[in-house]
Amino acid sequence: MDTNTLILILVATVAAAVPLIFAGLGELVVEKSGVLNLGVEGMMIVGALCAFIVATETGYLWLATIVGAAAGALMALIFGFITLSLMANQVATGLALTIFGVGLSAFVGQAYTSVALDGIKNLSLPGLSSIPILGKLLFSYNILVYLALVAFMVIAWFLYKTRAGLILRAVGESPASAHALGYRVIRIRYFAVLFGGAMAGLAGAYLSLAYTPLWAEGMTAGRGWIALALVVFATWRPGRVLIGALLFGGVTIAQFHAQGLGVELPSQFLSMLPYLATIVVLVLISRDAGVIRLNAPASLGQPWHNELH
What we know:
Elements: H1 3-32, H2 40-58, H3 61-85, H4 90-108, H5 134-138, H6 143-161, H7 163-173, H8 175-180, H9 185-211, H10 223-233, H11 238-260, H12 267-271, H13 273-286, H14 289-295
Helix pairs in contact: 1-6, 1-9, 1-10, 1-11, 2-3, 2-4, 2-9, 2-10, 3-4, 3-9, 6-7, 10-11, 10-13, 11-13
């Protein structure tokens, strides 16, 4: 394998990891507040469709990106109302939200399956992009890739270096104690859920506007579920979410590269490698229950209301 091929694989790995970074970091913030949202896949695909429709009808890619994030946040608002205000089961509601989002996007998106879109282009930075090796490794991406990296740094800083982040984590650990100190637990959880939905919608917008600028039914291809697994894999730490997303992105690209090299394995087996890797990682992590208990927010998935405490 020559240097150019290796660089192309690394660049493709970063590009493939971006939707997982967006969705994984968003879900990390949600779970840090004590809420378990299994509707990430549904929010991603609705965000992808809404972003693609706006981009097709208006030609404004920046507006389409914002709309994609807003669509994800709207789906999250539905989830929040049902689980936080009506106190429904979070697992069942998240699963229902995913089924609803997948079905809704398939129905509404029928008219856009054959539409071509000139998507978000990679940035061209004179002088920097032409640097040997580093130029291609660091400056061969579109604006959303850099936004994902900025989001990682901001979220890590917010969670561990700010008072607001401390409050969010306190709500996830002990909502009763946070409420006793005067913090509005439900309101804080609403903000976390909306942020997670916006990040999932942004991940979907990246898929339909930049990664593969088109609309296809089921185009998220289970990435929302991988993002959920990624949070557990990372033991609820932002840095590990970033590393895990890159690893899963690398597995995705590796299976494409293997097909290109003519590896004599069924294409279906190669296509399932990212999901097989997800299962293997979760099994390995689940073997040490102490790590999960030590790092998972204590109130994760548990409903809470002021009147009960």
